Structures are given as structure tokens and as C-alpha cells.
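Pinned message: reference record for NADH-quinone oxidoreductase subunit C
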Amino acid sequence: MTNEQIAQDLVAQFGEERIFGITENYGILNVTTTTETIIPLMHYLYQHPTFKFQFLTDLGGIQFPDVPSHEFGVIYHLHSLENNIRLIIKLYVSRENIAVPTLTGLYACANWMEREAFDFYGITFTGHPKMERILNVEDMDYHPMRKEYPLEDATREDKIDALFGR
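Predicted structure (C-alpha cells):
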């Protein structure tokens, strides 16, 4: 089984308008999909008699503030342990609608990963059984990994610029 065979199968099953942005990085197939397709796609990959992508290795949030209508994204890393093949699935949402369907019904491990993406980026996973912060304090009114905050505290006076290469 090759990455090309997997990509062709996914496009044949879901269509080019729902499976796009097909690339290969470091031997790992990358595809992009939509929020409407993510649940059927994941079920298809999980239940496929040959592919058997039954292990969600990782799930993470990302932000591209300068890309209109695609400011936030979720990246899923799947692994077929039986075939020793990995697959990366990406989807993007706009700042106005930062909601993605939850995968906790298929992958129990998605629970904490989705909560982490919510905690740091504010991405809401609809249908999640406990959509609340997991690492930061509950009364935090911002999401610290968003690129809306400066990298350094400009009010600090204890830093000597010469020691930091400035």
C-alpha cells in the first residue's frame, strides 16, 4: 500500500471538493478536508479493511492570523499500526466559527487532545463531553498560544539587551 493509493481511494470515496491539498512530506501523506467531512472521513479510515488507521497519535491546533477564512486549523496524526503507515489530516476554520466536530466517539484519546487545543487556541469541539480547560486555570479569559500577544513583556526592566543579542 502506497500513499498514492490511499490518496486516490480517499478522493474516489469523498471527491476532490472534500479531499484536497494532497502532498507528501518526509514520506507521510498529508490531506486537507472540511469540518463537514472530518467525521465520515475518520470513520472510513478507521473501518477500512486495508488501511486500518485505528490509532490517533496526535491532534493539535494551529493559527494563521493572516489567512482570511482559514485563521485556525486542527491537525490530526493517524497511524495504521498493522500497516505501519502514517497519515496527516488537516482542516481549517475561520475566526468567526472556531468549531470542529469532536472525535471522542471514535478515539477516546481525542478527549484530552481536543481540550488542549481548546485551552491554548480557543478551538471548540462540538459534541465534546467535557469542553473545558485542561492545563490553564479555569478563569483565564484568553487563549495563550494565539498570535495576538507579544512574544516578550515590553515592561520588563531586568533584561539586559546585550545579553540577548540585541
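Pinned by admin. Summary line: The chain has one domain: 3-152.
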